[in-house]
Amino acid sequence: MPSIRRFLLVSLLSTITCVLTGAAIYTYYDVTKKINSIFDAQLIEAAHVIRHTVEHSIAHHIGNLDEIFSPTQTYLPPKLWNIIYGDDLHHYDTRRVFQIWSEDGELLAKTESAPSFPLAKDSEGFTNSQMGKYTWRVYTLIDKEHHLRFQVAQRNDVRSNLVQHLALGNILPDLLIYPLTIFIIFFSIRAAFKPLKRTVTEVKNRALEHLQPINTIEVPVEVKPLIDEINLLLARLDESYAREKRFTADAAHELRTPLAALKTQAQVATNAHDKAEYQIALNKINQCVDRCARVVTQLLTLSNLRPDEPLKEVQTIDLSKLAIEIISELASDAVHKHITLSFDASNTPAITQGNATLIQVLMRNLIDNAIRYTPEQGKVNISTHVEAKQTIFCIEDTGPGVAPELYDRIFDRFYRELGNKAQGSGLGLSIVQQIVELHSATIKVSKPNQHSGLKIQVSFPNGN
To answer: Where in the sequence of the chain do the CATH 3.30.565.10 domains occur?
Structure first.
C-alpha cells in the first residue's frame, strides 16, 4: 500500500544524498584544479626566481657564475638557496627539487635530493616524469641568452595530499550535518502527520450514529479539501439516515390507522350476523387495503426522491403529451364524480428537460388531488403553455380551496386540512414539491380568478 510518509522520507533523503554526493565530487575536482593551478604557478615562479637570481643577484651577493657553479660543486649553494627560499625551509622542501643545466648538457647545480640526470626532456613547459616510486610535476625554463636550462619539479603526492585535506575539510561539515538532517526530516514529517493521526483517531472512536462534521481547525491546508469532502459526505449520510428514520416513522404513523381499521373491519366481518353486514365489512376492508397501498406507494416514491442527487435519465419532454396520458388514466375517477375534466394546450410545444417518470408522478398527484378535493359536478382544468423562458403546467379546480395563510403548509408531509373528508395520505403535494426542486422548477399556489377553488402552477425551465 502506498505510504506518503515513506515516499517523503525516501524522496527527501535520496535527494539530499544525491546533492551532497554531487557537491562532494564537484568540490574534489574543483579543489584539484585550483591546487594544480596554484602549484604550477609556484613552479613557474620558482624557475624564474632561480633564473633571475643566477643572472643578476648572484653577481652582486655571491660572486660570478664560475664561482657558483664550480666543477666540484653541483649542489645548489646554501646562499643561493637562502636567496630563493629564505632562511626558513618549507616542510615540503624535500619534495621539490631544482636543476640547472648548461646548453651542452652539463649539470651545473641541483638540490641535494635531485637526481643527476635531467628531470624532463629539453622541451620548455610542463611535463610529468616518473622517478622511482613517485611521479613528479616538472617545469622547464630555457634561458637562450645565457644558454641555461632551469628545471623545477615537485612530487604529485604533495598535491594529492593537499587536495584530500582541503576537500575533506569542505566535505566533513556536510557529512557531520547529514545524520542531523535525517533526524530533522524524520521528526518533521512525523510532526506534520500528527493532525492526520488525531483526525483518524477521532473518526475511529466515533459511534455509528455520530455523523457530525470532522473538526478542521488543526487540519493541514493540503488535506483540508479532502476533509471538507468527507464532511459533505457525512452530511449526506446524516441526511440519508434522517430520511430513513423519518420514512420509518412516517410509515408507522400513516399505516397505524388503516391497519387498525382493517383489523376492526376484519373482526366485524368475522362476527357478522348476516350477508349484508358481512358485505359492508368487506367493502370497508377493501377501502382500508386501498388506502394502505396508496400510502405505501407514496412513501416509497417519497423515499426515492433525493434532492442532493442529480437527476437521472434526463430527456426532452413534451408536457402536453404527458398531461394527456395522465388525464386518460384518471378520467374514470372524474366521470365517477361527474366532474368536468378539460385540457388546454398552447400552439407552442410545451417542451422542457427532465425525468419523464418523475414529471408523470407530479402530474398524477396534482390531477388526482384536484379530482379528490373537487365536489361532484365540479370542474378541473389542466393547461400547458410557454411564457418567456419557462414552460408552464397549470391546474385549476372548483373545490373548497385553501386559505392563503396555509399555502406553504400544504406541502408539509401528512398535512391535511381539518374537516376535509376526502381520502388521502397528505404526502402527494410533498412529493410534488421535491420533484419541482429536482427539476430546478418553481411552484405557485393561488386562487382562481373567476371562481372558488385552488390554482397550482408549476414553471419548468424551457427546453427549447
So the answer is: 315-461
Digit-by-digit pLDDT tens for the chain (464 residues) are: 677 888 888 888 899 889 888 888 888 888 888 888 988 898 898 888 888 877 765 455 554 555 555 444 455 555 555 545 444 444 444 467 888 888 888 888 888 778 888 888 878 899 888 888 888 899 999 888 778 889 899 888 888 888 888 888 888 888 888 888 888 888 888 888 888 888 778 777 777 777 778 777 777 777 788 888 888 888 888 877 777 776 676 666 556 666 777 788 788 778 877 888 888 878 878 877 876 776 677 667 666 666 666 777 788 999 999 999 888 888 888 888 899 999 998 888 888 998 888 888 889 889 988 898 888 889 999 999 998 889 999 999 988 888 888 887 777 765 555 445 455 556 678 778 888 888 889 999 888 877 788 899 999 988 66
Tell me if 298 sits within 8 A of 255, measured CB to CB: no
Fold for domain 245-304? Helix Hairpins (1.10.287)
Domain with CATH 1.10.287 in the chain: 245-304
Q: What angle do CA 220, 226, 228 make, to 5 degrees?
A: 90
Q: Does the reported pTM lie above 0.85?
A: no
* CATH 3.30.450.20 domain span(s) along the chain: 4-165
CATH class of the domain defined by 4-165: alpha beta
Write the class of the CATH domain 315-461: alpha beta
Question: Which helix (H) or strand (E) element contains residue 287?
Answer: helix 275-304
Classify strands 134-143 and 125-131 as parallel, antiparallel or unpaired.
Answer: antiparallel
Question: Maximum Cα–Cα distance for the chain, whole Å?
Answer: 165
User: Which residues fall within 8 angstroms of residue 300, CB to CB, at 6 or more apart?
Assistant: none
